[in-house]
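Practice problem 4.
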């Protein structure tokens, strides 16, 4: 782990790799090693480790420059067709795409909020050209991040609904089953529809 850290490898990756290597050198199988590593993480450390690994994945995506390429292609399209009708339509297309990206960041591409510093800064010039209200962008991103998290028991929603909410309800004496939690969360999630 120290060698990887000195080579400036991400600390979470270094920790995970070193734990797996240590288990294998110690004579454990790969499944026993992973079980021992996971069992050694207390409380919410497993969830924190998942978030950290996904953050590392997001940093790797940002280093690829794919978001800059996307932003430059959008700006070229805006320069090619600068009419008011096209600008208004494109404004809503950008908002819908940001909303879908935020929703998919919970389950399809589980990077959670790590996509925001990757995607948004290259698009700031696009927002300026479209005269897009940044508060509206913030509402769309927040809606896309929180609402599916509250009602869809997959990806990070599965972690929240099953590992955190359901576990704490049952630990505190309520007799709740997993299928009841998403239904109960529809009411607070409906508030996001009203806010946005």
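Answer key:
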């Amino acid at each position: 782990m120290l060698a990887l850290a000195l080579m400036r490898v991400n600390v979470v990756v270094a920790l995970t790799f070193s734990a797996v290597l240590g288990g294998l050198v110690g004579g454990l199988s790969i499944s026993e090693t992973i079980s021992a590593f996971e069992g050694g993480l207390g409380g919410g450390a497993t969830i924190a480790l998942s978030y950290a690994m996904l953050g590392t994945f997001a940093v790797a995506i940002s280093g690829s420059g794919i978001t800059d390429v996307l932003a430059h292609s959008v700006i070229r399209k805006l320069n090619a067709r600068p009419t008011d009708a096209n600008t208004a339509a494109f404004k809503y297309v950008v908002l819908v795409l940001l909303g879908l990206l935020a929703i998919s960041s919970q389950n399809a591409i589980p990077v959670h909020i790590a996509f925001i510093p990757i995607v948004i800064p290259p698009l700031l010039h696009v927002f300026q050209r479209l005269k897009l209200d940044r508060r509206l962008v913030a509402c769309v991103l927040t809606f896309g991040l929180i609402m599916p998290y509250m009602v869809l028991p997959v990806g990070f929603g599965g972690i929240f609904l099953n590992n955190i909410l359901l576990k704490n309800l049952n630990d505190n004496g309520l007799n709740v089953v997993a299928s009841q939690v998403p239904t109960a969360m529809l009411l607070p999630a409906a508030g996001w529809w009203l806010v946005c």
